[in-house]
Amino acid sequence: MSSGNRSEAVDVQKSYEVRTYGCQMNVHDSERLSGLLEDAGYVRAPEGSDGDADVVVFNTCAVRENADNKLYGNLGRLAPMKTKRPGMQIAVGGCLAQKDRDTIVKRAPWVDVVFGTHNIGKLPVLLERARVQEEAQIEIAESLEAFPSTLPTRRESAYAAWVSISVGCNNTCTFCIVPALRGKEKDRRTGDILAEIEALVAEGVSEITLLGQNVNAYGSDIGDREAFSKLLRACGKIEGLERVRFTSPHPRDFTDDVIAAMAETPNVMPQLHMPMQSGSDAVLKAMRRSYRQERFLGIIEKVRAAMPDAAISTDIIVGFPGESEEDFEQTMHAVREARFANAFTFQYSKRPGTPAADMDGQIPKEVVQERYMRLSALQEQISWDENKKQVGRTLDVMVAEGEGRKDGATRRLSGRAPDNRLVHFTQPEQAVRPGDVVTVEITYAAPHHLLAEGTPLAVRSTRAGDAWEKRTAAAAAKPAGVMLGLPGVGAPDPLPAAAAPACGIG
């Protein structure tokens, strides 16, 4: 009798779905939101549930001109589903929630909870309060209540993890609203960061990405300009940690000690994503970016001198208010000089609440589009040329999960080279798992990926692969009908090269 009651209790366990928009910071926050909900007894809804969950959480982005239209469109599609499902709840958090606050419930009165970027830990309490009081709960904190890394986490990967080292930003870029929504920079204690990394490695994680709105400004809280380079070197001493990456640095804070730490620390990967935004000094000044083209290209030159094989990527905004054809040509010149492995190029769009939105000299859309196409074509050719230089090289590729959409049809697997280039390779005879390392020879290059068509030269099983196998076996062994999330190890795979950092990071 009691056994039947336990089964019934499991079957009615409430499910949740988290929908994430925007940058890596939001992706990491969503891991925390999922962890909080599972810690409170919710279970993750199956993939493809498309709103068919008891709780649907939107973790929003506010940096796009149409971000609110996208949110309200999605909320509108859920309204009839909620009418048919008594007890269903909808929560909205993230940057747009921090910005719009009461507006969300006015435009979508069926929303149950609105919370901001500083109090994501309150989500389970707010959901319960909304359920008991039968009215919407809106709670927006003006400053960080607890560093997100102190919260429970539901990580998606057994071998790669985000590790947040700071939140907020002290810059005042005129196109970016993020500092107003995330607040001033707040750094974690170095000891706490290293303790988290060591715990992740003990669970099987072999690659970590240090994450911050302006990651290389780390240490500004304590006045130590070399704190970030010291952190990189400390990561190099953690046994079992094979790959260290970071995103996104700001050129203003990119100092020689960071370049030296990257070059001299074996597990810091030869990869750099550093937003340029524009190659025009006049536009950079209007953006309130505190460097100029010469300074930016000088950093690139120093990085390449220290790490000749480094892959460097960037962000570029086309059509910023006041950008002349001459300004745009300066951007094209900088791209030719820098020879980025890839660049995330954006057409400028007004971000409500930013100084740039009210600037004179807004560029007609057709002009922005034409310039964007010219820049994209140039960068596409450069990316292809740079990838062709990889042909014939022997690379150690960390096997990834879900990176190659055509892998099943082509009998290939996919993974990331040390410089984060995407590599598709022939499936070896022996079994390999995500997190394992395969040595391959590159035989072909496309603009956005490399191909290794021959038999892999070597396969190395890793603790990360063991962790993936253990996690997969545990998930398969769970009884049918019990919608539990996967064990909390790892973090999202590194973002694909084609996925743009869609907010003001950097």
UniProtKB/TrEMBL annotation:
Monomer. [4Fe-4S] cluster 1 binds at residues 23, 61, 95. Residues 388-456 form the TRAM domain. This is tRNA-2-methylthio-N(6)-dimethylallyladenosine synthase. It is found in: Cytoplasm. Keywords: 4Fe-4S, Cytoplasm, Iron, Iron-sulfur, Metal-binding, S-adenosyl-L-methionine, Transferase, tRNA processing. Transmembrane segments: none annotated. Catalyzes the methylthiolation of N6-(dimethylallyl)adenosine (i(6)A), leading to the formation of 2-methylthio-N6-(dimethylallyl)adenosine (ms(2)i(6)A) at position 37 in tRNAs that read codons beginning with uridine. Binds 2 [4Fe-4S] clusters. One cluster is coordinated with 3 cysteines and an exchangeable S-adenosyl-L-methionine. Residues 14-132 form the MTTase N-terminal domain. It is an enzyme of class 2 (transferase). Its EC number is 2.8.4.3. The gene is miaB. [4Fe-4S] cluster 2 binds at residues 169, 173, 176. It catalyses: N(6)-dimethylallyladenosine(37) in tRNA + (sulfur carrier)-SH + AH2 + 2 S-adenosyl-L-methionine = 2-methylsulfanyl-N(6)-dimethylallyladenosine(37) in tRNA + (sulfur carrier)-H + 5'-deoxyadenosine + L-methionine + A + S-adenosyl-L-homocysteine + 2 H(+). Its cofactor is [4Fe-4S] cluster. Its main location: cytoplasm. Residues 155-386 form the Radical SAM core domain. Belongs to the methylthiotransferase family. MiaB subfamily. Pfam families: Radical_SAM, UPF0004. It comes from the Bacteria. One of its GO terms (molecular function) is tRNA-2-methylthio-N(6)-dimethylallyladenosine(37) synthase activity. One of its GO terms (cellular component) is cytoplasm.
